[in-house]
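Exercise 7. Given the components listed, write out the predicted structure of the assembled complex. Treat all entries as one system.
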Amino acid sequence: MDCQKFKENLYQYLDRELDESAGLKLEQHASNCPVCSLELEKEKKFAHVLKAHLIKEPAPFALRESIVDQLEGNTEKFSWTYIFKTRFAPALALLAVVLIVFAHQQGNSLRPFPVFSEAFKNHLEYLRGEYPLEFQTSDMSKALEWFQGKTDFAVMAPHLSLDKVKLVGGRIMHLKDKKAAYFLMQKDGYKISGFYTNFKNVEAPKASAKEGIEQIKPMVLVQSENGYHTVFCFHPDGTACILVSDMPMEDFVKILA
Amino acid sequence: MFGYKKTTELKNEFEENLLLSLDSMYNLAYRMTRHRENAGDLVQEAGLKAYQAYHQFQKGTNFKAWILTILRNQFINQYRQKSKEPQKVAYEEFEEIIEAPQMSGFEEEIFGEHVQKSLDDLPEDIRVVVILFYVEELSYKEIAQVMQCPMGTVMSRLHMARQMLKRKLQQVIKEGGVEN
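Answer.
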């Protein structure tokens, strides 16, 4: 390869669009030609600076939410929620405050949340290895310390007899759009996923024969699906702990705190 | 027609793909419209169009490239018509080769601050190619698909973008980073 050919191929090479053999020839030429070698370095640096300083604007949360709403009820041709959220945000914020106050007074919540299916799905995705742990420890106090400042609610230990289960580690996860502290635990070879999250402004699930949701204790609900059991423990302060495992239900009940 | 379950599965799959590409869609929409509300509307409309056309999406190909194509078409149909004069680039101007300057760490820093602004000043067609290549890391071929132009055009637009940005860079460095 000569300098002319080097110049012709340079950008395709930098853009990773040059085939391997031509790329090797180009590198070979550069290693023997100081002029072209300098050129290559400068262009590399230039591309690097460009890449490093281009800003990717993230989609606003309101847009993310309204797109999901639109799909979930995709009969609506156009989502007014987004328009409201962006055009009338201040008024909407006020309305939200009023609604939250109202909901508190009523003791009611605002929107239903598919907590069982979300937790179950996340547990399976964890088992498939889609979510690596962000910390590993068997010490619960260390785990709680790790979560400090990472959520806008106080994370507490999962509702299990901690002397009977072994903590493995955890990470931050999402149950749909809700941030959750995730704990991975083990008991007799069974894996248990624990999600601790905030359930304020969200409708907590209720016992329902139709959906197979059973109340086993006050504030504790269970749904079983394909051999997996999902336990939902609700706190008066609005937080909730959700546990998923495939261990037999009678053993699961024994380790619940 | 699909049964209920099938439709739900497809919808979930689409939703998952869409949410993964949402930041890319919004960023491109924002860089094209230069307006946050319009960008949001554009993403919303393109999302709906894509959902209706999801059966045409070929499995195994790049979903992001596919949905950005829809977004871009939506933009051209809906927004660009409104601007009076389509942007034109004097191609001859970029025949000359401008070398990338050798940058010290300091100069790199100075220029870094101006990269996004310099890009925003480029003509729209060129700006989009730069975003698709450097931010979204699409291949020439995928960019050609999104822009609906030959691959050679993608290469020449990228080339022009680099020339323009290099010229800008040299100017910025010369002026010691003080602009306007």
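Discussion: DSSP finds nine helices and ten strands in chain A. Chain A has a mean pLDDT of 83.
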